[in-house]
Every structure is written in C-alpha cells, then in structure tokens.
Design brief:
The chain is α/β, with parallel strands linked by helices. The protein has one domain: TIM Barrel (Alpha-Beta Barrel). Helix content is 43%, strand content 15%. The protein has 13 helices and 12 strands. β11, α11 and β12 form a beta-alpha-beta unit. It is globular. The relative contact order is 0.13.
Length: 336
C-alpha cells in the first residue's frame, strides 16, 4: 500500500552553520566527552542538550539519492519534509527571516527535482507574524504544502492576537500548519534534576498540547474556522483527554472558546502517527477521531521508518481505513 510520511526531517548546511556560530541558545558546540575527545552537542536551552551524530546530520542533509534509497528500502513512497528543530524562530531577526527564505528555496528545489517522492512544509521566522505570513504565501507559490512551526516563540504562544496575521494567511491560502513540539519555555520546578523529562519523554507533548488548547481557548478557530492544524505523536495526548476537557467546558463555560474543545479537535485538527507506534494509543485515537483525521508519519531520522511502516501495516483496521491513513488523507489535506 502506498505510504506518504508527513513528519520527516531535513536540514541545510547554512542552518547548521548558523547554529554553530551562535553564542546563545540554540547552538551547536564542540565539547569534550568523557574520554577528552571533541564531540558536537546541540544545546537547545540552558536545561536541554543532546549529542549531534555526524551520521544523522549527513542523513538530514541528504535531499537526493541517499534519502530516496532509504525510502525505497523502508517502503515509503513520499516524504513531506520539515526542518529539523530547533528551527529559525529562535534566531534573531532579520537574519532568521533571511535564513528561512533560503531554507525554503533549497527545499522547493529538492521537491521540484523529485516531485513524486518529496514534498515540504515551509520554515517561518514567526516572531515577525506579518513577515511570516508573506513568506508562507511565497513558499506556497514555490510549491510547498503549508508550514511547520515549533510551538512557542521565545516563550510566547501564538494565540496572542499579534500573531493572528499568520493564522489569517494560513486560512486564506488553505495552508495546513504543523505544530511541532519543543521544550516548555520555562522548566517546571518539578523537572529540575530530571532534564530528560523536559524533552520528548514528556515536555514536548505537554507544551504542544498546551499550545493547541491555547489556540482553542483564545478564539483562534472562532475567528478562522477553516484553519487546519496538524499535530504529531497521535495528537499529543489530546484525544485521550477529549471527554474530560469537554465535560469541564460544559460545567464552566466562558466566552471563549465558543464550542467544546472536542469540537475544534474534530473540525480543525489532524494527527499523525509520528513516533507513536503503540497499538493501545492508536486504538484510542482511531476510536475518538476516526480514520479521516489520522495521517501516517514516522519522525525520521529520529525514529525508524522500518518500525513505523511495520506498525501501520500490522494495524488491525479495515483496508479502506488503512489506505486513508497511509496516503489518501495526506493527498487530500496537502493537495498532493
């Protein structure tokens, strides 16, 4: 069965160089390991860092034959690419905006070279919402299929009205926005001493689901009802909590949101299987959202495409629903 994976990552040499030149966060820095050897490490925040593998970086940089060969090997027909995080919104303007344009140009060129195998989400320097809206429009004209944002920007969430020009542009352009996780802006005191909890183990999900709920409660979807949002990792926990969120909203209704959170989740959101290959979690999301709202993804190269493909192929669901999840939903949502 055809498979379109829509949370797959890449990078560019210019972006890597920008990270290496920085003194603040995020940055890539060569540090001594336990044996006194120099190794690269990505410092995402003062509280979060991770090793940078030369092999993984090489895979991220490859927008050609090596990537296509891996896709063939693992049974992926198309990848929808996004810049690996942390991304340009954390850099300083106007350099961040110029870098985003260059990244989008490079991605669009790769897509044009391999249109049957690659598609892409734009990078945006959305600290400048008006500029990001213009860049989104330009990127869509280049053939990109929407944009990826990394949750908050320097601690600010995009429910704030100063960011609404970006949502207005996304709705008018029919451009889906993929909200990708990153660490909460300030680590909770309960996380001190446990740095791994602020990242993919828990903090990513907590921050991204909070951002989605802020958009609902802030009236973003009441103002822009045709806005389309994608969340990875089977919806960052929101489908599991939908009944309780709706129940509490019914008891303590305020002016915003105008509808129950679950109504927005079913009307404005799609979720992907990226990095969530557990049958029990999938069964929950499948029952709550239905197959029309689920998209196949892997989160490569951070997760195994082989594992992601095996998981969806073995999922105990009807073949027509599996086809929706594997490719039909993405083709419709992203006009592929």
């Amino acid at each position: 069965m055809k498979k379109i994976a829509i949370e797959e990552h890449f990078t560019t040499r210019a972006y890597q160089e920008a990270l290496r030149s920085r003194k603040g966060f995020p940055r890539i820095e060569a540090v001594d390991d336990e044996n006194g050897r120099k190794v690269d490490r990505l410092f995402r925040t003062p509280f979060s860092s991770q090793p940078v593998s030369a092999q993984q970086t090489a895979r991220l940089l490859d927008l050609g034959e090596g990537r296509l060969a891996e896709m063939d090997r693992d049974g992926i027909d198309m990848q929808v690419l996004m810049l690996a995080g942390p991304t340009v919104e954390e850099l300083d303007l106007p350099g961040a905006a110029a870098l985003a344009r260059d990244i989008n140009d490079e991605l669009a060129a790769a897509v044009k070279k391999h249109p049957a195998r690659l598609a892409g989400f734009a990078s945006l320097a959305y600290e400048d919402p008006q500029g990001a809206a213009r860049e989104l429009e330009r990127a869509m004209k280049l053939g990109l299929k929407g944009a990826k944002i990394n949750s908050h920007v320097k601690g600010e969430y995009l429910d704030q009205k100063k960011y609404w020009p970006l949502w207005e542009a996304a709705e008018q352009l029919g451009a889906p926005i993929y909200i990708h996780p990153k660490e909460p802006p300030e680590p909770l005191s309960a996380l001190l001493g446990y740095p791994s909890l602020s990242g993919a183990m828990w903090g990513f999900m907590a921050d991204t689901s909070l951002h989605a709920l802020r958009l609902m409660c802030g009236g973003v979807f009441d103002e822009f009802p045709r806005l389309r949002i994608i969340l990875g990792h089977l919806g960052e926990g929101l489908p599991f909590w939908m009944w309780r969120m709706d129940n509490r909203w019914t008891r303590r209704r305020h002016k915003t949101p105008q509808r129950k959170p679950g109504d927005y989740l079913l009307a404005n959101f799609w979720v992907t299987t990226s990095g969530m290959f557990g049958q029990e979690a999938f069964d929950c999301v499948y029952r709550v959202l239905g197959p029309e709202r689920i998209l196949f993804a892997v989160d490569s190269p951070y997760e195994s495409s082989e594992e992601g493909v095996r998981f969806i192929e073995q999922a105990d669901i009807p073949a027509n629903d599996k086809a929706r999840i594997c490719h039909l939903n993405a083709e419709k949502l992203l006009a592929l």
